[in-house]
Amino acid sequence: MNVQRTLDSQVLVVGGGLVGLTTALVLRHHGVDVTLVEKRATTSPQPKARRFHVRSLEIFRALGLASTVREAARDLAEHDHMATGRTLAEAQQLPLWRPSGPDGDPVEPSPELPCLVAQDVLEPVLRQAAEDAGVRVRFQTELTSFAQDADGVLAELDDRRTGRNDQLRAAFVVAADGARSPVRAALGIGRSGRGAVGGPNVNVYFHADLSDVVRGREFNLCQLEHPDAPGALASVDGRFRWVFMAGGAEVERDWPALLRTALGVPAPDLDVRSVLPWQPEMLIADRYSDGRVHLVGDAAHVMPPFAALGANTGIDDAHNLGWKIAAVLSGVAEPALLDSYDAERRPAGWFAADQSSRRSGVTTTPDPTLADPFVLAAGGFQYPAGAFAGGPDEGGEIEPITEFAPAGRVATRIPHRWLTPGLSTLDLAGPGWALAVADEPQRWAAGGIPVHRLDADFLPPGEGLLIRPDDVIAWRGTDPTAPAEVCAKLLAGG
Ligand SMILES: Cc1cc2nc3c(=O)[nH]c(=O)nc-3n(C[C@H](O)[C@H](O)[C@H](O)COP(=O)(O)OP(=O)(O)OC[C@H]3O[C@@H](n4cnc5c(N)ncnc54)[C@H](O)[C@@H]3O)c2cc1C
After folding, report:
1. Is 62 a pocket residue for ligand 1 (Cβ < 6 Å)?
2. What's the CA gap between 199 and 197, in Å, rounded?
3. Residue whose CB lies within 8 A of the most ligand 1 atoms, among 12, 23, 35, 39, for a mutation test
4. Average model confidence (pLDDT) for the chain?
5. Candidates 298, 355, 356: which one to mutate for ligand 1, based on the most atoms within 8 Å of Cβ?
6. Which domains does the chain have, with CATH numbers?
7. Are strands 3-14 and 164-175 parallel, antiparallel or unpaired?
8. Contact residues for 485 (Cβ-Cβ < 8 A; gap 6+)
9. What is the pLDDT of residues 294-344, one digit of tens each?
10. Which residue's CA is the nearest one to ligand 1's atom 27?
11. Mean pLDDT, to the nearest integer, of 433-441?
């Protein structure tokens, strides 16, 4: 190999999809020097994921990007409804589902609203943000091999823009290289899970000006039941860009004719852009970490799209991993802290993938063990074990999943409450740690961790909550000297 340059970076992110770009942004937010390589020349040409749950928006909020993402999402701002009909021309909107609290009152679960934005719109926004934040973003550059030793990872890169082969030495590699993940394969990491869930599908991405047809009954997803052309129509921009999802594996069909049947209108400008076969699958990597290499996003987990959790779970992986890598690189934490990435995020991946699989629509019997949709959307999963003290593994209180009832339990995301207009409990931590206390801050010897007075229903007098940089509660109790000790122990990997 003709190696022309050797470069250094603290972290190499492999893959410039949604999750790789988010990982790079999280790492930069924590001051880490990052290089991202993406073998393609452009971001995703396919709309793919469109629904971003409140937890993802909270993470974009932490990165200072929530309003930028929302601006990118403006085309689908009024498209929350589901719809159904024999054809699009006959379709009706269904009422909106709204979350409610234990007493039936609507709850405000997050400082952010969910949003609909197609992945091919969001990825360029994240790419620009990553470049602006100082990530070295190198598209048309492929990781061809890598080797790790005690001090770091040596990566071989094929840069197709320059025709050069570079070597890059990094302390850590984050593999965001998608479902087929060459990095995962090179590490010999297998996957477990249900495998295929339901039958094959075909996604037909097309352009047609349907703005007059949908005006006044805008939708996110419209179930079409015409016997000759059943399927679901997804709004990509709500006017010109659409994805029709049909069951079956047949790719070669007269799609324009079939689409016109499903639409129930002539659509003279209809133009099919791509036809992609896909198979819903549930597969989770057997390890998320191998030495200095960590898997995130689809490299770590693939799941059916029924709860729209694939990309959202990957964004959460990035948020969990980013602060830990940064803490190790800065010397604040021992490398053992990174063991908690697999301990926390692999069960979270299983949970999301299992819940998605069980929403496949294959069964019609209501399943009382399914998680409340808001538990899925607001990151309500409680880590069973990891970088916290007094969690479920130590007899701590268990967060329910069949109702959305966050109560500030250890190993869960801190519940949202407004502190002042525009300032949420979720804004207290990140990029550093925070301590929220229900009494006088002076009583707490927090060892440099900022202490905030919090009057909230879930925090009784005398108690404090230690909050990690990723909003996860690491400890809860009344001992004013405990938070500093717990934080030091967790950073030491204890
Ligand atoms: C039709 C469809 C609908 C979906 N809807 C939703 C939804 O509503 N909500 C949701 O949350 N999720 C949804 N998903 C899932 C979502 O699209 C994926 O979870 C998401 O794209 C995963 O992002 P990623 O960055 O992990 O992987 P990818 O987007 O696959 O990106 C991986 C990148 O790595 C690059 N790469 C691979 N190997 C190398 C290498 N050696 N060197 C350099 N680069 C490399 C690839 O070129 C690719 O760009 C949907 C998916 C599909 C297909």
Report:
1. no
2. 7
3. 39
4. 94
5. 298
6. 3-73+117-194+282-345 (3.50.50.60), 77-112+199-279 (3.30.9.10), 382-491 (3.40.30.120)
7. parallel
8. none
9. 999 999 999 998 889 999 999 999 999 999 999 999 999 999 999 999 999
10. 178
11. 95
